[in-house]
Write a structure and sequence with these properties.
224 residues, alpha/beta, Rossmann fold, 2 domains, 3-stranded antiparallel sheet, 17% helix, globular
Amino acid sequence: MGLMRGIVFTGGEGPRPGLCRRLLAAGDSPGNGRSAGPPVLVAAADSGLEAAEAAGLRPDWVLGDMDSLGDLSRLDAYPRERVLRYPAEKDYTDTELALRLLREKGCGEIWLIGGGGGRLDHLLAVRSLFERDLRPSRWITGAEDVRCVDSPAEFWWDGFPGAPVSVFPLGAGPWKAESAGLKWPLAGLPWDRGFFGLSNAAENGSFRLKAERGRFLVILPLEV
């Protein structure tokens, strides 16, 4: 798997520009003066360009059918070979195309920024991306910080006391997980398709989740 991190900005609700910059800086992600962390590539899917520019970023690629980009003249600021235009009627969404592009460019870890709110079918489509081999590892909306934890792996989070934590199984299973710091421990739960752990809580503000078998989607509040 590649060592680079990819960032996909997509349409829909995402973090406010100032918060977005702080999140990316905390993750050793792109920005002026970045000197640490893995190399980063940024792709803007359609109107995700507006969000990327609002956060002070200049994407490496802009792609999509551009049907939701309010001002097409924004594209003039980018080299023609870095603007990939697609027809409106196509087999893949703009977000899928951006994920594919970043993986082809060598990104082993990909974050998705935006895509919150709006139409339910669009939300479900993004959620379905986590079922695939080509999937994001993190999804940041306007209110949620969503993580994909694939076994064998441990995930640590430091937030605030009582923070809500929801966990859903992904993929084909089987699933097995344990935790520390959650009000209701995950060990021994009968994970299966359709099962979930909704509205758990990080009692003291920090918790650990260990995915022993299978893949899990962890939904956390986006700290402001």
